[in-house]
Amino acid sequence: MARYFVHLAYNGANYCGWQTQPNLPTVQLTLEKALATLLRQPVAVVGCGRTDTGVHAADFYAHFDHHGDPFDTQAIVFKLNSLLPPDIAVFDICRVRDNAHARFDAVARTYRYHVSTQRLPFRQGLYCRIYFSPDVDRMNEAARVLMEYDDFTSFAKLHTQVKTNICHLSHAHWDVEGDELVFTIRSNRFLRNMVRSVTGTLLDVGRGKLTIDGLRHIVEQRDRCAAGVSMPACGLFLTKVDYPDGYFDPEQPQQQ
Amino acid sequence: MARYFVHLAYNGANYCGWQTQPNLPTVQLTLEKALATLLRQPVAVVGCGRTDTGVHAADFYAHFDHHGDPFDTQAIVFKLNSLLPPDIAVFDICRVRDNAHARFDAVARTYRYHVSTQRLPFRQGLYCRIYFSPDVDRMNEAARVLMEYDDFTSFAKLHTQVKTNICHLSHAHWDVEGDELVFTIRSNRFLRNMVRSVTGTLLDVGRGKLTIDGLRHIVEQRDRCAAGVSMPACGLFLTKVDYPDGYFDPEQPQQQ
After folding, report:
1. CA dist B145 to B50, B167, B175, B214, B253, Å?
2. Fewer CB within 10 Å, N or C, chain B?
3. Would the CB atoms of A11 and B86 count as touching at under 8 Å?
4. Cβ–Cβ of B87/A121 closer than 8 Å?
5. Which fold has domain B108-239?
6. How far apart are CA B7 and CA B49, in angstroms?
7. pLDDT for A80-130, tens place per residue?
8. Does residue A160 belong to the interface with chain B, where contact is any CB pair within 8 Å?
């Protein structure tokens, strides 16, 4: 048995998220099927996270185990990209140590949420149109306030079975990028739906519907019902997954 | 009667080009229908050019005549964008002098052609994938050679009824932009299919299939069959249409 990491990206518009669900198109299932065809054995991949329906990933990792002789990873990457639909791109496959884990070993994740006040015909499905001009400075003030906290219960989806709602944010900032306004948020972990509800709440600050004190109150209430509306999936991208330094350095004679 | 210019952009993927054709979806027809609904009169628009099926326009102008009282252009722009599909964006409508002409008055047009050696899941339908790494310096040398000529018969679609194949290029250059390679070409006019066949021919130079002398031979032959393959529509954008200086300055009391 040998374990491999797949480094990929996908446009989530046509998928019901990453994780396999019965009778629904998911990125995981699409990737597993293509790998199984090429490697001629059943393949189960474990993703670094679970993006929701319609959410995009510009940087995503998944691991899988391969039984039998090692294979030419570069050749498989090439064939995989021929087999996969054009909304999934595989950058690389590399052998890792047998206990490496795409999800548990990731130390941080970065998400970006794109909004625009304009109609952008070449960015359809990749941003969310908003119909007001938010105050970016105010939203960045609100983002700084958010970083003072670590309990994000107020932004968690109800009824999920996680043990803790503690997240250590290391970055939260809005930037103007061309015709778009982009919120970048980095944390060791995220709760389900968290980025979309945080983005919606900060946009409420930006349009004057919510004060900074109001934001503090929402966070401190630890009640999901208090937060702003969750933004639609199309504007959300998982853009960076971090592993410890040297994680991908070859430790054993493995690549052929 | 009053004449108006519409400034717009469109993603051409879902249209059989700009110009109305019987029973086919075109940008012209879509725009005319929306304007007619809002202005409550039949509207015929004249475009600044005729993009082919699947070709995009990031900058496009069209004029139309309106009979009756002047209308609030800003209100119509807003309503038009609500009525039009998301792949067409109207930036502005402004009144112009009665003999202004979107096509005849344009003094230059700029097109850009996007290629990439990579799979880009967030740029689907907006670039053309190529399976070789072209030599960009060689292609720019070829682009400079192209600018020495003005008869582009070799790159014109056969059997069109234009009177002359003379085009005065003012820019032709390849640039690396992120994961893409972009060819920008500017001319007072373009022949049908010209940008796509010029791009294909320059890519032949870039991959070593054609020499600079070979390129000169193709241009000097004035025979379409000599040139390289025409690139697909999806990578092509009309990005700039130039009118004379001061063209849009109000000359009469017209804007309300």
Report:
1. 27, 14, 17, 11, 48
2. N
3. no
4. yes
5. Alpha-Beta Plaits (3.30.70)
6. 13
7. 999 999 999 999 999 999 999 999 999 999 999 999 999 999 999 999 999
8. no
Model confidence at B175: pLDDT above 80: yes
How is residue B192 annotated by DSSP? Answer: T
Per-residue pLDDT of B48-93, as tens digits, reads 999 999 999 999 999 999 998 889 999 999 999 999 999 999 999 9
Is residue B118 exposed (0-12), middle (13-18) or buried (19+ Cβ within 10 Å)?
A: middle
pTM of the model: 0.90
ipTM of predicted assembly, 2 dp: 0.89
**CB–CB of A9 and B56 under 8 A?**
no
**B101: CB partners within 8 A, 6+ apart:** B46, B63
Please tell me the class of the B2-104 domain.
Answer: alpha beta
The residue of chain A with its CA nearest to that of B237 is: A122
Which of A7, A56, A118, A119 to probe the B interface (max B CBs under 10 A)? Answer: A119
For residues A201 and B236, give the distance between their C-alpha atoms in angstroms, rounded to a whole number: 39
Does the CB of B62 have a partner CB in chain A at under 8 Å? Answer: no
* Residue A116 C-alpha, separation from nearest chain B C-alpha, in angstroms: 13
Please tell me the distance from the alpha carbon of residue B253 to that of residue A154, in angstroms, as a whole number: 56
Residue B256 has pLDDT above 50, yes or no: no
What does the block give as tokens for A66? 């391969």
CA nearest neighbour of B58 among B68, B48, B67: B48
Residues of chain B with CATH 3.30.70.660: 108-239
Token pair of A9, please? Answer: 């990206």
Q: In chain A, positions 63-82, which contact chain B (CB-CB < 8 Å)? A: 81
| CB-based burial label for A6 (10 Å; 0-12, 13-18, 19+) | buried
CA B211 distance to own-chain centroid: 28
Q: Does B124 touch chain A (CB under 8 A)?
A: yes
Considering only the beta carbons, identify the residue of A56, A87, A124 that sits closest to B11. A124
Q: Which A-chain residues 101-120 have CB contacts (< 8 A) with chain B?
A: 118-120
Q: Say if residue B99's pLDDT is above 80.
A: yes
Residue spans in chain A of domains classed CATH 3.30.70.580: 2-104
Residue A32, phi-psi category: left (phi > 0), alpha (psi -120 to 50), beta (remainder) = alpha
b/e B25-38 (16+ beta carbons within 10 angstroms → b): ebbbbbbbebbeeb
Residue A211 token pair = 């004060």
Task: Inform me whether the C-beta atom of residue A21 falls under 8 Å from chain B C-beta atoms.
Answer: no
Say how many C-beta atoms besides its own lie within 10 A of residue A165's C-beta: 17
Rounded to whole angstroms, how far apart are CA atoms A9 and A34? 15
Sort A162 into a burial class: Cβ within 10 Å, 0-12 / 13-18 / 19+.
exposed
Other C-beta atoms closer than 10 Å to the C-beta of B213 total: 9
Flag if A81 and B119 touch (Cβ within 8 Å): yes
- Report the catalytic residues of A: 52
